[in-house]
Amino acid sequence: MEIKELQSLKNRFDIVGNDATLNRALEIASGVAPTDLTVLIIGESGVGKESLPKIIHQFSRRKNGKYFTLNCGAIPEGTIDSELFGHEKGAFTGANEMRKGYFEETDGGTLFLDEIGELPLSSQAKLLRVLQDGEFIRVGGNKVLKTDVRVVAATNVDLAYAVQRGKFRADLYYRLNAVTIKMPSLRERPEDIPLLFRKFAADFSEKYGVCKISLQPDAVKLLQEYRWPGNIRQLKNVAETISALESSKISATSTRCEISASTLQQYIPKDGMSLPSVSVHEEGFSASEKEAMIRMVYQLRQEVDYLKGLISAGTAPEQQNAIFSPNPALGNSAAGGAASDAPVINIESPAAHDADDAEWQDTEKQDLSISASKVNLIKQALERCGGNRKAAAMQLGISERTLYRKIKDLNLDEK
Q1: Closest CA to 396 of 363, 374, 367
Q2: Contacts of 247 by beta carbon, 8 Å cutoff, 6+ apart
Q3: How far apart are CA 197 and CA 215, in angstroms?
Q4: Conformation bin of residue 134: beta by default, left when phi > 0, alpha when psi is -120 to 50
Q5: Is the pLDDT assigned to residue 36 strictly greater than 50?
Q6: How many Å is the Cα radius of gyration of the chain?
Q7: How far from chain centre, in Å, is Cα 213?
Q8: What are the DSSP E strand ranges found in 223-268?
Q9: Of 181, 285, 269, nearest to 229 (Cα)?
Q10: For residue 413, is pLDDT > 60?
Q11: Nearest to 43 by CA among 147, 195, 159, 166
């Protein structure tokens, strides 16, 4: 793609940066757009993966069709099938009328499935059927319906590893992985960081009529040296916070406010922290909370050590066959066979447990104390968040779906 064409594409979709990896991602997206190939976008949270599906849709033959986005990680497990495939009247409590799902509504268009790695296994089999045959059944129905939808998926987790742990279907992974596009993290494109900061500061200045923030050379250096675990989303928050607190109203004599490194340092989170410092709770963490967090870190360390051991040992093909137990029908399924013919792959190792559930496991001798710790930890998180389960899940470092499951398993709804 010519430089002018690439810059025109960036301007159209409000993309800032000149990094080679970013440019390559944009070239692949525009190049694959005219086809109907399924695209998988990988990258950390906050890197701007949502821009690529829009490019793919606008440069495809479906550009006049509908475009929808669905975050698979934000929908409770019990309702995801209804959202995707719709439901018939009376299919479940509260289903007072028939409702079309995203696949039915998007017929002839493009559907962007974000956080595809959070999709439950039962829904994965149904998604595979839609991708292969264009067929689905509404929840509570028995009639096979047809749809023509181009799917673009995105994930911030390693789906290949999820397949090994039995948390993601291998046949679906290969079906989604027709074309893979990687969006680079912000720390992988340091030269773009000042450009993005300048854009966010300029947008804020224009919107609220305050002086535009500019950075001194030492502040630019500090900005580029920080790791930005929250990527572009975090950088935008920092730029807007500085603009709001350090800038003044535009006047005839002042339209710009220059920031030094010492001033910027106040808004950059300390090393090891993913978010700016906030007041958590007056009483701090309880003993049970500290114990649970230490246990989580210890279990994560065990999994990392186990994986390091596998890499160091250089597992041979015979050993891999002993560790992984793929079904012989897998090859047929990956090539287009029926989704129901290919069970998921399971791995018999300490690293096989679900990343969320691993945080809650311990030995049988500690079951009683661990159970009490779980209850206390969840209750205190919910109290701090005023009963908001999504916010509580973020504080606990687990997905909202896992929190709902733990509340149910521990009978916290009744308590």
Answers
A1: 374
A2: 205, 210, 211, 212, 213, 257
A3: 9
A4: left
A5: yes
A6: 24
A7: 31
A8: 256-259
A9: 269
A10: yes
A11: 159
**Angle (CA) 249 219 266, round 5°:** 70
d(CA 329, CA 360) in angstroms, rounded, equals: 34
The pLDDT-based confidence of 390 (bands split at 50, 70, 90) is confident
What tokens does 301 get?
């360390």
Which pLDDT band, with edges at 50, 70 and 90, does 345 fall under?
very low
Cα separation, 276 vs 239, in Å, equals 13
Contact 274, 280 (CB under 8 A): no
Phi/psi zone of residue 387: left (φ > 0), alpha (ψ -120 to 50 degrees), beta?
left
234 three-state secondary structure: helix
Map residue 71 onto helix, strand or coil. strand
Tokens of 277: 């410092």
- The DSSP line for 27-60 is HHHHHHTTS---EEEE--TTS-TTHHHHHHHHTS
Q: Measure the CA–CA gap between 383 and 388, rounded to whole angstroms.
A: 8
Annotate 252-286 with b (16+ C-beta within 10 A) or e (fewer).
eeeeebebebebbeeebbeeeeeeeeeeeeeeeee
Look up residue 372 and give its two tokens: 């009490």
Query: Between the CA of residue 220 and those of 195, 265, 270, 307, what are the distances in Å?
Result: 10, 11, 17, 38
Mean pLDDT on 238-267: 86
CA nearest neighbour of 112 among 54, 73, 169: 54
pLDDT in tens, 172-216: 999 999 999 999 999 999 999 999 999 999 999 999 988 999 999
Greatest Cα pair distance in the chain:
76
Distance CA 165, CA 75 (A): 22
Residues in the chain, overall count: 415
Here the tokens at position 210 are: 């305050």
Joined together, the tokens standing for residue 218 give: 């030492």
Task: Indicate the pairing of strand 212-215 with strand 256-259.
Answer: parallel
Amino acid, res. 349: S
Let me know the angle formed at the C-alpha of 81 by 36 and 33, rounded to the nearest 5 degrees.
15
- Closest by CA position to 157, among listed 149, 165, 145: 165
How many CA atoms lie within 13 Å of 266's alpha carbon, on the beta-carbon side? 8
CA-nearest of 130, 109, 26 to 60 is 109
Which sign, positive or negative, has the C-alpha torsion 121, 127, 133, 138? positive
- Residue 390 buriedness (CB in 10 A; 0-12 / 13-18 / 19+): exposed
Structure tokens at 57: 């849709």
* Chain-centre distance for alpha carbon 368: 34
